[in-house]
Amino acid sequence: MLEGCIKQVRAVHPLIHNITNYVTVNDVANVILACGASPIMADDAREVEEITTICQGLNINIGTLNARTIEAMRLAGRKAAALGHALLLDPVGAGASQLRTRTASRLLDEIHFDVIRGNVSELKALAGQTGRTQGVDAAAADIVSDQNLPEMVSFAKNYARETQSIIAITGAIDLVADEKQCYVIRNGRPEMAQITGTGCQLSGMMCAFLAANLANPLAACACATITMGLAGEIAYQHLAPYEGNSSYRNRIIDAIAKMDAETIKQGANYEII
Amino acid sequence: MLEGCIKQVRAVHPLIHNITNYVTVNDVANVILACGASPIMADDAREVEEITTICQGLNINIGTLNARTIEAMRLAGRKAAALGHALLLDPVGAGASQLRTRTASRLLDEIHFDVIRGNVSELKALAGQTGRTQGVDAAAADIVSDQNLPEMVSFAKNYARETQSIIAITGAIDLVADEKQCYVIRNGRPEMAQITGTGCQLSGMMCAFLAANLANPLAACACATITMGLAGEIAYQHLAPYEGNSSYRNRIIDAIAKMDAETIKQGANYEII
Amino acid sequence: MLEGCIKQVRAVHPLIHNITNYVTVNDVANVILACGASPIMADDAREVEEITTICQGLNINIGTLNARTIEAMRLAGRKAAALGHALLLDPVGAGASQLRTRTASRLLDEIHFDVIRGNVSELKALAGQTGRTQGVDAAAADIVSDQNLPEMVSFAKNYARETQSIIAITGAIDLVADEKQCYVIRNGRPEMAQITGTGCQLSGMMCAFLAANLANPLAACACATITMGLAGEIAYQHLAPYEGNSSYRNRIIDAIAKMDAETIKQGANYEII
After folding, report:
1. From its phi and psi, is residue A165 left (phi > 0), alpha (psi between -120 and 50) or beta?
2. Contact map slice: A 73-112 vs B, CB within 8 A
3. Which of B93, B137, B243 shows the shortest C-beta gap to A38?
4. By the CB < 8 Å criterion, does B152 face chain A?
5. What pTM value is reported for the model?
6. ipTM score of the complex?
7. What is the band of C250 on the pLDDT scale with cuts at 50, 70, 90?
8. φ, ψ at C182 (rounded to 5°)
9. Which of A237, A131, A192, A117 minimizes the C-alpha distance to C33?
10. Do C65 and B46 touch (CB under 8 A)?
């Protein structure tokens, strides 16, 4: 059933408005196309409400935020929320600077996001716990592992209850939770951490999955997460011995373009807690 | 004869100033290098006139416009026009927001562009017809097809007459027209639509072809369009079964780097109406 | 000994703050990851001091500078200098506009950079000599060659003495000099000039090498330069006949990801003058 979510993306072909960082924006656009949706990027305050109106989802990523784009995020977010669009926040680097933590918190105060997706340190920082964010990567001490899994699942569910959002904490083990259920997903490969922007890419794709599956939001977010992890596994098989992180990046996006429901059904590695 | 235009690009090696969006800018730079020219990106109002002065062409793309870059576009555009440089406008998303439509229209009012290149919905929006732009893609109802070809060729020629610019409408069928002649080009592959920025890339390359062939502007623009389409065909042949849009993007730029006049002569698929 | 510098990068795993242009930023991030460090990009004045504080190095690249980011460069630079972090300036396009020349000069006046890395025309422009910068490429008349080598080595050492910085002039022949010694490096391939941003990539990587080898700054900068050149040589061997500059870009980053001290020891081609 979960695997059907990707069929919906390709049938509905949602248009996703992205206000995102300039580091990984090209990959985000290509991943959104790869999964069957369409991207548009626009971050000027004078047009974001109009642009987001013609879309079905809004992906806000604070990776290279500035005063101008923060204002655009707020305007677009309020409009998308009012229209009932799929709304995702990727709080890149929350905990690494006050500007980022405050901007993400303020966006969360003003706008209801369907999903908040980040690494564990970013999510902890937002939840008011001691996030140990190191730049844009999660701190080692925060990483979700088999040892701290029960505690982390509780954290995700509790924060989902508090925010009434789906919480997606991605890393070696991915958690995708609402207040009642948590998908614990073990797809993916460690080499994915050597590519810039796999998190940003997942956020863009998750927003597309959500926009095309509004009746099944948790399954949609879990399916997007599994799709990214599986793509990392498939892509790895096609790497020549001399290929490194740049080719791996391309092959992951390729694998998303070739992904189908049957592959997800066979390859998905998760439990629901 | 048309195919000789690519030789000129490699002989003249024009320097192209780009004020373009941050989504596809890296691919635009690599495509300009691939075809034999050199790119420079600069968008601060305090330097764009000086930068454009040392160039031979200016490519303005409104894909992620904002107040700061719009001002830079106007200053650079006026200077490049005064110097007789090759001047191209890519009105990305015209029709999708008033800011974009107005900005493109105002640039066209103030500055004479040698070429306007966009998808059919963007061009219709600028021409004051009902553009049905959906984000940055053309609306299905607008697409150039064998059915509406005569009407679309007339539209292109008429809009060329009105603006005294070459009009390049690209999609499954490409039209490159001045007021008297229209190249109808059938190179390319549908999979190119699954890559972000093939339009932006073509605009950058077309500006380079124009800058190196100022005596044959229509042939130069047609040759650039054929080069992009043929590169899409050649690149497709080199795709492994597991490769998708990200590898395809790289292979298209590769094919442009390897393109020569003989390949264009053999592979060009067009008629002049 | 020099080759040990790459081991240090992978052991120390420094976090590098980049204020850089939006053209090549994604490649810079992936190269920094490939060599074993981590990148973070942040350019808002309200957060750059905080962000740079948690890093070990700061890479300032003026490739698409504007008023907002220039202010961020100054704030971050002063903070990083006060903290003793590795500090590198890449004066992209100095000599091509007064804004760029003045911005780079002012940054050099206010902040001590450990390294200044650019092409020969950019460095000459900053040193007050007649830089013949053509856009972002070095002018033909400036290129370091066997004919003008003694004179260029003197230039590099003299400018190193004047600035008390390491001077890295990269091109067909690379010079990496302090006031006493100059590495003359002959790794690399001419095809690397057909890729946008190999210079920017080297600057990011050099900052990482420096941050991880503060006790051996000149060897660190030389090792980063050799790593880039060797990666260009290795990547070239893996290019299929139909592959051009886009695939070459990916394969160079791949080769950096696979680079080790033994490969550097075997492949390094340099003399110290």
Report:
1. beta
2. none
3. B137
4. no
5. 0.97
6. 0.96
7. very high
8. -135, 120
9. A192
10. no
